[in-house]
Design brief:
The protein is mainly alpha-helical. It has 3 domains: about 70 residues, 2-Layer Sandwich (Wheat Germ Agglutinin (Isolectin 2), domain 1), CATH 3.30.60.190; about 70 residues, no CATH class; about 250 residues, no CATH class. It is about 50% helix and about 0% strand. It is built from 14 helices and 2 strands; from the N terminus they run ββαααααααααααααα. β1 and β2 form a beta hairpin. The protein is globular and about 70 Å long. The two termini are about 45 Å apart.
């Protein structure tokens, strides 16, 4: 019978701590544990060898658990039906000479009739095509690209009242709310509605003078908002809490209470997060340049567009806070999360009031500064060829903007 030494001492690098032999090769000390069966192994090769069936079933269980947690509604079903129809309407042949459609007619009809299917209900051919589509990114082609609202012609003619509120107030909005976050307020393809109630003057919100760095901080917030909406393809309403977490991860001003002092510093932090491992799939540095263009465009539209943006951002945060109430987690963690989101909401509201009080000359000037910084980044990218941090010779620390691990 094998002896297993158990040590209750805290982890350390000491040679005296308990060591276990890899259960696969029986040659090396184990460094890892299989998340499903707790088998100890020493390397990636041993992990693959220990049980392919084990790892596949572990992934399947996680996927099915996520699927069961999805709350279907009419809008979600309609979107799913559209995707299924587009999938099934593909009549091209794949590279193997097979029918290009991913699902058979029988499977499609079952789904359309409301039958819940699991991976085990698909045929081997359907599973093969599905796995191939996931691996090569074909599924992303089924999603219609989102056209940002700030790129639409209607965004150039946004009108708000003298106090920063909507000129026409919706009848179904509560009187005591500055920004409603109901899905009926605005479509993800239209300009988001501005505040329903007049914005208070800044001196009513704070006795101290606003920071002169708020213009710099606004760039961080605008960039992070554009990032979040593009990541969610314009529709954060199906997962407002997840969208809020993405926003706070991107924005150093809202997420970590950072205080960048220059436009260059603010953009550097945003680009660094965009190119981080957490968002590697988003598009890296090139995607960051698109987001800078978004920020320039929004700044060029002026205060009314930025107020509407910030009002939509408040809807996102408030919807995330509402969703957090139903999350299954420790009471203390839920309370901490809500406290964090309430603090972010107050910051955004203060920034919205500040934006409203600035002269219109501020925004084109700020857009020009951001444009200069973008040109500098493009020149740096061109000089380095493929933009990878830490590989260019002679790069100074002041120019360290991106690090992809």
């Amino acid at each position: 019978m094998d002896k297993v030494v158990v040590s209750e001492a805290p982890p350390s690098n000491s040679f005296s701590e308990a060591r276990l032999i890899c259960r696969v090769c029986q040659k090396q000390f184990s460094r890892y544990t299989c998340p499903r069966c707790n088998t100890r192994y020493c390397s990636l090769e041993c992990y693959k060898r220990h049980s392919l069936r084990c790892t596949e079933s572990f992934m399947r269980e996680n996927v099915m658990e996520e699927l069961h947690q999805i709350q279907s509604n009419d809008a979600t079903k309609r979107k799913m039906l559209e995707i299924l129809r587009r999938v099934h309407s593909e009549d091209d042949m794949d590279s193997d000479g097979e029918d290009g459609s991913m699902l058979s007619e029988e499977t499609t009809q079952k789904i359309l009739s409301g039958v819940q299917l699991g991976l085990e209900d698909l045929s081997p051919g359907e599973i093969k095509k599905f796995q191939r589509a996931v691996a090569n990114g074909e599924l992303s082609k089924l999603i219609e690209p989102w056209d940002p609202w700030w790129r639409k012609s209607s965004a150039a003619s946004i009108s708000l009242g003298p106090s920063g509120n909507q000129l026409v107030k919706p009848l179904d909005v509560e009187e005591n709310s500055e920004c409603s976050f109901s899905a009926s307020d605005s479509s993800s393809t239209e300009v988001p509605a501005g505040p329903e109630n007049p914005l208070p003057p800044l001196h009513q919100l704070s006795r101290t003078e606003p920071s002169p760095l708020l213009s710099v901080h606004s760039i961080d917030v605008i960039y992070s908002y554009c990032f979040t909406l593009r990541i969610y393809n314009g529709d954060w309403r199906f997962d407002p809490l997840g969208a809020a977490m993405v926003l706070l991860t991107l924005s150093s001003v809202l997420g970590s209470d950072s205080r960048p002092e220059t436009v260059s510093e603010a953009l550097a932090a945003c680009i660094e997060q965009t190119c981080s491992p957490a968002f590697r799939h988003a598009g890296g540095f090139k995607f960051g340049l698109i987001l800078i263009d978004d920020a320039i465009h929004l700044l060029s539209l002026g205060a009314n567009a930025i107020v509407c943006l910030l009002c939509d951002l408040r809807r996102l945060i408030l919807a995330g806070e509402e969703m957090l109430k139903s999350e299954k987690m420790e009471k203390a963690k839920r309370a901490e999360g809500r406290r964090k989101l309430k603090g972010v909401d107050r910051k955004i509201f203060f920034l919205m009031c500040w934006v409203h009080e600035q002269s219109e000359e501020v925004w084109p000037s700020l857009a020009g500064i951001v444009g200069v910084e973008k040109a500098s980044l493009c020149a740096l990218d061109q000089d380095r060829g493929n933009y990878n941090m830490g590989e260019g010779k002679g790069a100074s620390k002041a120019k360290v903007l991106v690090e992809e691990v």
